[in-house]
Design brief:
The protein is elongated, with a radius of gyration of 41 Å. The chain has 5 domains: 35 residues; 122 residues, conserved putative lor/sdh protein from methanococcus maripaludis s2 fold (Beta Barrel), CATH 2.40.420; 93 residues, Beta Barrel (Elongation Factor Tu (Ef-tu), domain 3), CATH 2.40.30; 119 residues, RNA polymerase II/Efflux pump adaptor protein, barrel-sandwich hybrid domain (OB fold (Dihydrolipoamide Acetyltransferase, E2P)), CATH 2.40.50.100; 36 residues, no CATH class. The strands form 8 sheets. Strands 4, 6, 27, 28, 29, 30 and 31 form a 7-stranded antiparallel sheet that branches. Strand 30 and strand 31 form a beta hairpin. With 518 residues, it is an alpha+beta fold. The N and C termini lie far apart (84 Å). The protein is built from 7 helices and 32 strands.
């Protein structure tokens, strides 16, 4: 009985040990797959070159395990710290590790990019469509045809009558000069004097024909518009230079915006702008950018931008606030798209004047100048020569193949600069930006990631235009990139803040080092 019992007890112990060994092997394999994601063979170090580092202070690199001399945290093993020259650093994660890190990717593709600039603007008078009604003689206001602010007048409408003794004397001089005894030059001089005093040519012709002196001077409106200010009363005494009325044509108005300096890149002369007003829900107004101030307001860090709006229906009232939106599209090279006025001709003094051909400004007769950005630039451009660059150091550009002088990686041929408005785009969440360089992580295979330095254009709402570093079809990490970058940094591989990896030589931090004089 004792023999059989001992035999059964020994078999039980044997099977228990076997089961424990199988479970330990399975657990070890699972933990290793989850906690120890491996790099490619090009980035795996030899066992004899083990390096231990601190998760919080990756600059600490010791040849044996222990505690961090800076924060006393346990050191962790840094694998892949010594990648051979000419190979790209990489990291391979198991499927379970990818799920735990919530790594997500998206495909780099071409699409249209745009940026919406929103600002609150104030409706103002079109200063180029305003006029002052002034008197040029001394006298008294005897009659007002326009006696309140807000009335609309047409060009040539009478506004006010002024009695002036000096004007009567000037008319008598002309009649005396025309009596036949005076020279023709005196007649011309007297006629010119009346014109300077405010008489129109029709009034002078009537005086010459009727030989009857006009005791009152009638002032007429030089433009069609609205009386926005009245500064004269009946029977008031006036003197030369006094402003009687101020008129403004409201068929076109300006809107003044304040744009932040960071948004100035997106605002260009001739851009189409849409505006909305709370006074007219659901209605939009369309205008154009016609002036961008060359001066920055240092108090608000903004630049003044002026818009011009057609206002024939008089809905936009000066003083109103509107919400303006400027939509700027991007070209494939990251530059703002043309606005449609490039190559046309405008006046430096009157930028609202646009002409399809050269000539003189109808307002001031100045020669028109051509707006930069002619449509024939692409036709005249020389064919682009091929160039090569480093995936990790995009600032390295060569005219022929070779190796990168910084990391010894093989240079890759740069794709030709694309044209059109479909830009190669990468989501904002995929780009890690240190302020000095931008980095994305590309999935080369399932769970196999490599860092790629990229050069991007200006940021839009949800993406960057890619200028170099990526190609169409690449899969970039959009979620979990910071986690991958921290793993690269801990392992001593090139990362966002350490483009060359951890190259600090290993030293024993337990021994003091000598610095300063020797």
């Amino acid at each position: 009985m004792i023999h059989h019992s001992t035999h059964r007890f020994g078999k039980a112990i044997f099977f228990a040990i076997l089961i424990v060994a199988i479970l330990a092997f399975a657990a070890g394999f699972t933990i290793r797959a989850f906690l120890s994601p491996s790099e490619s063979s090009a980035t795996m170090p030899s066992p004899s070159n083990e390096v231990w580092t601190c998760s919080m202070h990756p600059q600490i690199r010791l040849p044996q395990p222990g505690m961090c001399p800076l924060c006393s945290m346990p050191l962790v093993k840094a694998t892949g710290g010594d990648s051979s020259a000419g190979t790209e650093p990489s990291l391979e994660l198991s499927e379970h590790a990818r799920a735990m890190a919530a790594v997500e990717t998206t495909v780099v593709q071409r699409r249209a990019l745009a940026r919406e600039i929103a600002a609150v603007g104030k409706v103002e008078y079109n200063e180029a469509a305003m006029a002052n009604i002034t008197v040029r003689v001394e006298g008294y206001v005897e009659r007002l045809f326009v006696d309140y602010t807000g009335i609309e007048v047409k060009e040539g409408d009478h506004l006010v009558e002024v009695y002036s003794p000096s004007l009567i004397a000037a008319q008598q001089e002309l009649l005396v000069a025309m009596s036949g005894t005076a020279a023709s030059s005196l007649v011309e001089l007297s006629t010119r004097k009346l014109r300077y005093l405010g008489l129109t040519q029709n009034q002078i012709d009537e005086l010459i024909q009727s030989r009857k002196i006009q005791e009152r001077l009638t002032l007429y409106s030089p433009i069609a518009g609205t009386v926005i200010e009245k500064m004269v009363l009946l029977n008031s005494a006036v003197k030369p230079g006094d402003i009687l009325y101020r008129l403004a044509n409201l068929e076109s108005v300006w809107v003044s915006l304040e744009i932040y300096e960071s948004e100035l890149l997106w605002v260009r002369y001739g851009q189409t702008v849409t505006a909305r007003s709370e006074a007219y829900p659901g209605m939009t107004f369309t205008g154009r950018v016609w002036f961008i101030s060359p001066i920055l307001n240092e108090a608000t860090r903004t630049i003044k931008v002026m818009l011009n709006f057609d206002n024939h229906d008089k809905k936009l009232k000066p003083g109103m606030f509107v919400s303006a939106s400027i939509r700027a599209e991007l070209m494939a090279d990251g530059k703002p798209a043309p606005t449609g006025v490039e190559g046309k001709w405008t006046c430096p003094m009157h930028p609202l004047v646009l002409s399809p051909q050269a000539g003189a400004c109808p307002e001031c007769q100045m020669p028109l100048v051509q707006i930069p950005g002619a449509v024939d630039d692409e036709k005249n451009a020389e064919p682009e020569k091929p160039k090569w660059t480093c995936p990790m150091h995009p600032e390295v550009v060569r005219d022929e193949p070779g190796t990168c002088p910084k990391c010894k990686m093989d240079l890759e041929k740069m794709p030709p600069k694309p044209g059109g408005r479909l830009a190669l785009t990468v989501p904002i969440t995929a780009v890690l930006d240190s302020g000095l360089r931008k980095l994305v992580y590309v999935e080369k295979g399932k769970g196999y990631y490599v860092p790629v330095a990229v050069e991007t254009g200006p940021r839009t709402e949800d993406a960057y235009p890619v200028l170099s570093g990526l190609k169409e079809g690449d899969k970039v990490v959009t979620h979990g990139a910071f986690l991958l970058d921290s793993q690269f940094q801990i392992r001593g591989l090139p990362s966002l803040i350490s483009p060359g990896g951890m190259t600090t030589p290993t030293q024993d931090h337990s021994q003091p080092t000598m610095q300063g004089t020797q």
